[in-house]
Design a protein that fits this description.
With 656 residues, the protein is an alpha/beta fold. It has 21 helices and 30 strands. It is globular. The chain starts with a helix and ends with a helix. Bound molecules: 5'-O-(acetylsulfamoyl)adenosine.
Length: 656
């Protein structure tokens, strides 16, 4: 955050109350009701979650233990059997929702499709049968590398139906990144499309899959299932590649849901951390189903009349939890959009709100800042009166953007639900319940019932009101990640050992800094580790550094984030070159392109700074704090006593 943002956040005193009318119809109607539920859950989290699990989900077999907590490993609803695709589909078919719109999809070139619950169920069952035909079995992993089309959600649900775990890789990731993830998960099958539409152009997804799989570089993959979307020519490898529509033709729509165990793996989703290799975050079935269901129901106050639209991509956790599983488990209507705002369609989001009468709109601060830049005449010239709740996620929202969202999009009548959570948490952790908790611009407000969140110092002691510290969670919750795929020790090291574990108390360390104000409201300040948040997407500095040094010109690289008005942060890379190469615009371009090719376009550095050497401590550690300050144009004259060679810094400063 910039200094001016931090200042305005610190001085933010405004409080926004929901209207009485809104509160009366909401699931949770008042601060008192929230407090009561929160206190009850705090006193006895297990019975709180067990009651909800009983009430909100269908189980084939009941659990015999609510929580088995062997820190830091948790099991929820032990021995219980259920199927999340059953909870998202089949159970609604027995009600009037059978013919309710489950999924409304708007394609980038303007085509659209709507699936009722009955239709979606049919598609999922057929696809599940296709997966079986291709030899996919319970416990196998399936890679999904897709554009934002209904088949992405159908593929996920089909995997869940047969008890195979999916690992969705964001369609913006490179072939290289895809290969690494498929290998880490030993995926047996990849589901993709010929291409996807992105900002009026085709993203060649199948070509990327071909590159990722070339030369047997992912030996576990046996088959590739390809959805036809953009209809350009693609290579189809005989014996390996199959068209989705060919295999689905004439396939039975009868496919009983596999009775999966509560703790059977539902999916792996890779996310960036502080070391080079992305972590495979593992989520399991029962706890995740319950947690995404209940958090969405209460925080977005889901009602049967809602048309709910989350603008995330299914390749991120937000898409998993709050486009697919949470909304469908609730029997809601979920909107999916293949496109994004772009110069040729600056009002496209508001057209969709108007076209479908969207009532709940959930997006990211970076998108809100882009809307602001495009001008208010776009939303103002559409009818947005259907909206009743607005949500935000991905990074701290600056109060200016919050106010614009509230006034211009919400017409000063829609509560803003600022949801703080992570890939690792599965669902919302700190969030307003819109009928119950008054909001403050820039604050995610209060923890969800059952979530014992706090702000502490490195010893685990609570810090004073309004003092900065580390955001932690003090008790397991059903939606928490279970482990890092294939690396339980990394799970322990990354999340459970930063704050000194003490007798009987394990704290989950989120990697974010925060403070709590006098009302107990949380103000998340951003990452305290080497993770950069670019337009709401996480990237590890090490990942980008590894990509840079894989280029022959680069000897050493250090990557930091600097504040960016639109994207929140942008990447600045400091590099030293191998002897034969010389710095210049040409090489700068080439290196940016190289990083985009290695990881994906979101990782493209905003600037590359060439240097003869990097500032290091006497023990040889790169001084990132210094580089961060340099990159954002701040004063770096103080506290450089540990610097090994001062002249390095002086030169870098001259160059800036
Ligand atoms: C859902 C998601 C997680 C990181 C997290 C924070 C930041 C997310 C907010 C936020 C302030 C928010 N998963 N973050 N939401 N910061 N206010 N409402 O984004 O795994 O991709 O990222 O994002 O730093 O640790 S994620």
């Amino acid at each position: 955050m910039s200094d001016s943002t931090i200042e305005s956040v610190l001085s933010e005193q405004r409080l926004f109350h929901p209207s009485e009318e809104f509160s009366q119809q909401a699931h949770i109607k008042s601060t008192e009701e929230y407090q009561q539920i929160y206190n009850r859950a705090q006193q006895d989290p297990e019975s709180f979650w067990a009651e909800l699990a009983e009430k909100e989900l269908d189980w084939f077999e009941k659990w015999n233990q609510v929580l088995d907590w062997q820190p830091p490993f948790a099991k929820w609803f032990v021995g219980g059997k259920l199927n999340i695709s059953y909870n998202c589909l089949d159970r609604h078919l027995k009600t009037w929702r059978r013919n309710k719109a489950a999924l409304i999809w708007e394609g980038e070139p303007g085509d659209s499709r709507t699936y009722t619950y009955a239709q979606l169920h049919r598609e999922v069952c057929q696809t599940a049968n296709v997966l079986k035909q291709l030899g996919v079995q319970k416990g196998d992993r399936v890679g999904i590398y897709m554009p934002m089309i209904p088949e992405a959600a159908i593929a996920m649900l089909a995997c869940a139906r047969i008890g195979a775990a999916h690992t969705v890789v964001f369609g913006g990731f490179s072939a290289e990144a895809l290969k690494d993830r498929l290998n880490d998960a030993s995926a047996k099958l990849v589901i993709t499309a010929d291409g996807g539409w992105r900002k009026d152009a085709i993203v060649p997804l199948k070509d990327q899959v071909d590159k990722a799989l070339a030369n047997q570089s992912v030996p576990s993959v046996e088959n590739v299932l390809v959805v036809q979307r953009t209809e350009q020519d693609v290579h189809m490898e005989a014996g390996r590649d199959h068209w989705w529509h060919d295999l689905k033709a004439g396939v039975s729509a009868h496919c009983p849901p596999e009775p999966t165990d509560s703790e059977d793996m539902l999916f792996i989703l890779y996310t960036s951390g502080t070391t080079g290799k992305p972590k495979g975050v593992v989520h399991t079935t029962g706890g995740y189903n319950l947690y995404t269901h209940v958090t969405l129901k209460w925080a977005f106050d889901i009602q049967d009349t809602d048309v709910y639209w989350c603008t995330a991509d299914v390749g991120w956790i937000t898409g998993h939890s709050y486009i697919v599983y949470g909304p469908l488990s609730n029997g809601a209507t979920t909107v999916m959009y293949e496109g994004a705002p772009r110069p040729s369609a600056p009002g496209c989001m508001w057209d969709i709100v108007e076209k479908y009468g969207v009532t709940i709109f959930y997006t990211a601060p970076t998108a809100i800042r882009a809307f602001i830049k495009m001008g208010e005449h776009h939303p103002k010239s559409r009818d947005l009166s259907s909206l009743r709740i607005l949500g935000t996620v991905g990074e701290p929202i600056n109060p200016e953007a919050w106010m614009w969202y509230y006034k211009v999009i919400g017409n000063s009548r829609c509560p803003i639900v600022d949801t703080w959570w992570q890939t690792e948490t599965g669902g919302f952790m700190v969030t307003p319940l819109p009928g119950a908790i008054p909001t403050k611009p820039g604050s995610a407000t209060l923890p969800f019932p059952g979530i014992l969140a706090d702000v502490v110092d490195l010893d685990g002691n609570q810090v004073a009101t309004n003092e900065g510290g580390y955001l932690v969670v003090k008790y397991p919750w059903p939606g928490m990640m279970r482990t890092v795929y294939g690396d339980p020790d990394r799970f322990r090291r990354t999340y459970w050992e930063h704050i000194a574990p003490r007798e009987g108390q394990y704290l989950y360390f989120a990697g974010d800094g925060a403070r709590k104000d006098e009302d107990g409201y949380f103000w998340v300040m951003g990452r305290v580790d080497d993770v950069i948040n670019i337009a709401g997407h996480r990237l590890g500095t090490m990942e980008v550094e590894s990509a840079l040094v894989s280029h022959p010109a680069v000897a050493e690289a250090a990557v930091v984030g600097r504040p960016d008005e639109m994207k929140g942060e942008e990447i600045v890379a400091f590099v030293t070159l191998e002897g034969d190469y010389s710095a210049g615009e040409e090489l700068e371009k080439e290196l940016k392109q190289h990083v985009a090719g290695e990881i994906g376009a979101i990782a493209r550095p905003g600037a590359i700074r060439f240097s003869d050497a990097l500032p290091k401590t006497r023990s040889g550690k790169i001084m990132r704090r210094l580089l961060r300050n340099l990159a954002s144009g701040q004063d770096v004259s103080g506290d450089t006593s540990t610097l090994e060679d001062r002249s390095v810094l002086d030169k870098l400063r001259e160059g800036s």
